[in-house]
Amino acid sequence: MKKLISATLAATLALSLAACGSSASISEATPAESTASSAAESAAESTAETSELAGTTLKVAASPTPHAEILNVAKEILAEQGIDLQVVEFSDYVQPNLVTESGEVDANYFQHTPYLDSFNEENGTHLVSVGAVHYEPFGIYPGKSNDLAAIADGATIAVPNDTTNEARALQLLAAQGLITVRDGAGLTATINDITENPHNLKIEEIEAAQLPRTVQDVDFAVINGNYAMEAGFSVGKDALATEDASSEAAQTYANVLVVKEGNENDPAIQALYAALTSDKVKEYINSTYDGAVVPIF
Q1: Alpha-carbon distance 21 to 171, whole Å?
Q2: DSSP state of 68
């Protein structure tokens, strides 16, 4: 990561010092003058801080949707601070971490913490999370039936068949009061951890990517947010229930900004994270993805 100090730094610092000097006499100023002086001082200090990052270039690896799209909104915010954000897109989940570890890029944004921890363990990398940005909620979608409150005895509900996603699906069903899952099962729960099933629901395990194609053959299906979005489902309009932002699954599987260990407190990285968790990015996410991507800040 390269930091280039702008040629105007000296002038900017001079303005900052001048503002600080004028504030020293605030005790004899009127309230209005004091307010104006304080505002000028804050603006000068902000300008000085911004100028320290001006000329910085950040390279961030990301998957195309939604991560690169979200980063491009943050890019506009960083440009105002003189930071050039370059988004490098990858379609796989291995290279972004490898190029972050090697220093070819400064950060990446595509994964959740459990995947990051597993990757570090398996590959000997030293990557850490800077913080969470968003999660992609699971949703319960209607098939042959469309009313969870009037669910029929013996109804069939399709869930993903891999351990992690199945656990999230079961916990979402439990949150709706349709089943009870054994205490402590958490995000390792399987159908064997169902302790109460008052409606005698049939839980059908299906490969996650196939769920959107098979939903019409079952009463309901619990589908990953990304697969639902790719299949044209509207999470906001079609899902009968979704994971809450405060749920264990949402907190655990939130997508995070990742850097090589030791770089997490770098001012430019912190500026990037601030941009990713800004109101502008939150508004973009909420207005663009129709509930398939949810800010977690």
Answers
A1: 60
A2: I
For the whole prediction, is pTM greater than 0.85? no
Q: Residue 279, exposed/middle/buried by CB under 10 A (0-12, 13-18, 19+)?
A: exposed
Cα separation of 231 and 65, whole Å?
Answer: 14
Residues 6 or more apart from 117 whose CB is under 8 A from it?
Answer: none
Tell me the residue type at 24.
Answer: A
Neighbouring C-alpha atoms within 13 Å toward the C-beta of 193:
19
Residue 51: its pLDDT value, please? 61
For the packed helices 113-123 and 95-102, what is the interaxial angle rounded to 10 degrees?
70
> Is 214 in a helix, a strand, or coil?
helix
8 A C-beta contact, residue 252 and residue 114? yes
135 backbone φψ class: left, alpha, beta (φ>0; ψ -120 to 50): beta
Taking each helix axis as running N to C, give the angle between helix 267-276 and helix 69-79, from 0 to 180 degrees, rounded to the nearest 10: 120
**The residue to which tokens 């990037």 are assigned:** 272
Query: pLDDT for 82-123, tens place per residue?
Result: 999 999 999 899 999 999 999 999 999 999 999 999 999 999
Name the burial class of residue 216, with classes exposed (0-12), middle (13-18) and buried (19+) by CB atoms within 10 angstroms of its CB.
exposed
Distance separating alpha carbons of residues 45 and 43, to the nearest angstrom: 5
CA distance 275 to 74: 5
Neighbours of 282 (CB within 10 A): 18
Alpha helices in the chain (DSSP H): 9-23, 31-53, 69-79, 95-102, 113-123, 163-175, 211-214, 225-230, 235-238, 248-252, 267-276, 279-288
Distance CA 265, CA 121 (A): 23
